[in-house]
Amino acid sequence: MSGPGQRGGSIGGEAVVSGPAQREGAIGAMDGSVGGMLSIVVPAYNEQDNIGAVYERLSRVMGQLHIDWELIFSVDPCTDRTEQLIRELCDRDARVKMLRFSRRFGQPMATIAGLEAARGDAVVVIDCDLQDPPELIPELLARWRDGHDVVYAQRRTRAGETIPKRIVAALGYRMIKRIADVEIPPNTGDFRLMSRRVVDPRAAGTSKYNRFWGSLVIGLNGIVGFSRYPLHLISLLGIVLAGFAFALATVYVGLKLGGVGFPVGNPTIVIVVSLFSGLQLLSLGVIGEYVGRIYDESRHRPKYIVESRYGWDD
Q1: Per-residue model confidence as pLDDT tens digits over 150-203
Q2: Residue 310 belongs to a domain
Q3: Does residue 103 contact residue 305 with C-beta atoms inside 8 Å?
Q4: Rounded distance, CA 210 to CA 213, Å?
Q5: Which CATH number goes with the domain that contains 105?
Q6: CB 193 within 8 A of CB 41
Q7: Cβ-proximal residues to 120 (8 Å cutoff; 6+ apart), any chain
Q8: What's the mean pLDDT in 302-306?
Q9: How many structural domains comprise the chain?
């Protein structure tokens, strides 16, 4: 499977689909004859222009598969007609459901909420902006039936994205690949399929979203969440800069003893102070990222708060 804007990859313990998607392993088989169900989770925020198109394309694709399915929209409070349009879909189609949060928790938490609410034997996560084609879901299912638990969608191109987002994505994936303790396939977004045995631990564990800062924050979370390298980098920078300062002092002493004239005074003081102040702030900032995560875990606050649910019998 290939084509512009699609995703692809290789198959192993975790699989990657060539075209718009990559995959990891799954167990069992799912089809309508054995009563299996597929859940589709769609995080949404101010997506009134896409809701109808997403529903129509997903309905068309799922209608060809002859399996039971449900569509769960995880919605941050919107300022447009997104929620109204989804409620209308819930009234028309019992398979459509909506989770509305009490405030904006962001796309990652919206995805987790959808995973926790999903009832399917497998779950597909897809963005609402249709940059990930729903027509690839049959291939994700086929790989899942082959025995993969997770099927990633891997981009072959990033056509249609802004230049800043492309730069952030390229640098972020390259850095994560170099320093992370776990392997994260490059150019893989949220579009993926996960089996039930993967969804349950992930759910129990710890677009109209801003395209630049959102990517930057997610990339930072990937670096800090999967690697201790930044802490090691602080020590390394401290050693290097301390050595540089010692070497600079040695050169100054040598020049002074040799009678060579050189600028001294305020400029030198400012440079040295700024250098070490920057190092201290950098170190505190990186340490603060880890301390902040410890603080978040210690509060035991809910990851999200669902204000209302539509489409469920209860």
Answers
A1: 998 877 776 666 777 777 777 777 776 776 666 767 666 789 999 999 988 755
A2: no
A3: yes
A4: 6
A5: 3.90.550
A6: no
A7: 36, 37, 38, 39, 69, 70, 196
A8: 89
A9: 2
